[in-house]
Every structure is written in structure tokens, then in C-alpha cells.
Design a protein that fits this description.
Oligomer: heterodimer
Distance between the termini of chain B: 40 Å
CATH class of chain A: Mainly Beta
Helix content of chain B: under 10%
Radius of gyration of chain B: 14 Å
Shape of chain B: globular
CATH superfamily of chain A: Immunoglobulins
Strand content of chain A: over 45%
Distance between the termini of chain A: 37 Å
Largest sheet of chain A: 7 strands, mixed
Number of domains of chain A: 1
Number of helices of chain A: 0
CATH class of chain B: Mainly Beta
CATH superfamily of chain B: Immunoglobulins
Largest interface: A-B, 23 and 25 residues
Shape of chain A: globular
Largest sheet of chain B: 6 strands, mixed
CATH topology of chain B: Immunoglobulin-like
Structural class of chain B: mainly beta
Structural class of chain A: mainly beta
Order of helices and strands of chain A: EEEEEEEEEEE
CATH topology of chain A: Immunoglobulin-like
């Protein structure tokens, strides 16, 4: 089974801190995604990557950056955390870029910014 | 614009009855659709998918129906069980330009004993 793991289930940070969220997948998937999930808004795409060192902005990239140095690892960085970034963050991976295919999700990281 | 929506935010179903969860999508260029189940405190879990060249696909106790004419997707759960209680949401995959997934906001399914 595909396994997508996220470094933390819960995080509490202070405004202005730099925050790193790590995601690792173990099935050699090309694509990796970062979403945030807020009540009533569904999943919104922050960034995605379809190859090592490649990244593309999603729908809400402001205030975030990403890094993909290795195929299995995709990091989300909040350069200066703000309270409006309090949310559930979900990482996902899928096998290939072209054509629809299943996304596998991690358990999520619930981030609270005070 | 692009949107994937759900008609009912909460659905209550008696245990043993069938459940039907609906989803509307707006992008006719989408050619792949997924239903996810998300239990409290967990990440979304794949249930079933369907491609646009199909009208119906069945899994174990679940069936997905796709009506491209009215851009409607539904998930049917047979003999609903307490373990089916969760939030269900659909996703469409866009192949025109951006190659990305768009997710609905979700329907909470409550199974009544």
C-alpha cells in the first residue's frame, strides 16, 4: 500500500515563526501536492510538484513556499506564520502527471498559529 | 467558473438503508472523478473513481454514477453501516491546461442506529 506520512499531526507556532511541514511518500510517485483544508471551503491547492526540483503554484500560494530535493519528499514552508494560516494541511501524491489518477493523502497536520 | 459542489451538507441515514451523496461539477473538460471518504482527524481516503467515458462503476457496496449531460456525480452506498459515518467529497481532474484536481466541500454522512 502507498503510504504518505507527514512529520507532525499537530503543531502550535507563534506569529512570525518559520514553519516547516514535511511529507514523505514511499511509492515512487511523480506528483506531490500540498493542500489546506478549512471548514466550508474544501481542499485548496497551495503548491504541487511533478518532478524533483519542479514546483507549480496552486490556487493559494501566497505566504507559502515549497521544496522538493528528493522524489519522495515534499516540504511546505511558511516563511513567516500568520494567524490566517491556522488550518489543516494535507499532503498527497499521485503516480503520474498526465491523466487523472488517484491521489493518496497523508493523515494531515493541524497547524495553529497564535 | 470552476466549481465542484454538493447539494446537501449533512445527510442522515438509518443503518441498513442505502445512502446517496450528490455532487455537481461545472467543467466539461474534466475526464476523471474521484470520491473520497474522510473520517474525523484523518486524511481523505479513496473510495472509488470513474472516467468520463463511463456512466457507472461499482465497487464493494459503493456505486458511482456519472451524468455528463447535467454534470452530475453521485455516490451510492448500499446497506449503510455505522463505519460509513464520515465526510464524503468528490473531486474532478481537469485536463485542460492546468492538470489539477478540484474538490467539493463535502457532505457529512451520519448513520443512525
Amino acid at each position: 500500500d502507498v503510504k504518505v506520512t507527514q512529520s507532525s499531526r499537530y503543531l502550535v507556532k507563534r506569529t512570525g515563526e518559520k514553519v516547516f511541514l514535511e511529507c514523505v511518500q514511499d511509492m515512487d510517485h511523480e506528483n506531490m501536492f500540498w493542500y489546506r483544508q478549512d471548514p466550508g471551503l474544501g481542499l485548496r491547492l497551495i503548491y504541487f510538484s511533478y518532478d524533483v526540483k519542479m514546483k507549480e503554484k496552486g490556487d493559494i500560494p501566497e505566504g507559502y513556499s515549497v521544496s522538493r530535493e528528493k522524489k519522495e519528499r515534499f516540504s511546505l514552508i511558511l516563511e513567516s506564520a500568520s494567524t490566517n494560516q491556522t488550518s489543516m494541511y494535507l499532503c498527497a501524491s499521485s503516480l503520474w502527471r498526465w491523466g487523472g489518477n488517484e491521489q493518496f493523502f497523508g493523515p494531515g497536520t493541524r497547524l495553529t498559529v497564535l | 467558473g470552476e466549481s465542484v459542489g454538493l447539494h446537501l451538507p449533512t445527510l442522515s441515514v438509518q443503518e441498513g438503508d442505502n445512502s446517496i451523496i450528490n455532487c455537481a461539477y461545472s467543467n466539461s473538460a474534466s475526464d476523471y472523478f474521484i470520491w473520497y471518504k474522510q473520517e474525523s482527524g484523518k486524511g481523505p481516503q479513496f473510495i472509488i473513481d470513474i472516467r468520463s467515458n463511463m456512466d457507472k462503476r461499482q465497487g464493494q457496496r459503493v456505486t458511482v454514477l456519472l451524468n455528463k449531460t447535467v454534470k452530475h456525480l453521485s455516490l451510492q452506498i448500499a446497506a449503510t453501516q455505522p463505519g460509513d459515518s464520515a465526510v464524503y467529497f468528490c473531486a474532478e481532474f481537469l485536463t485542460s491546461g492546468t492538470y489539477k484536481y478540484i474538490f467539493g466541500t463535502g457532505t457529512r454522512l451520519k448513520v443512525l442506529a
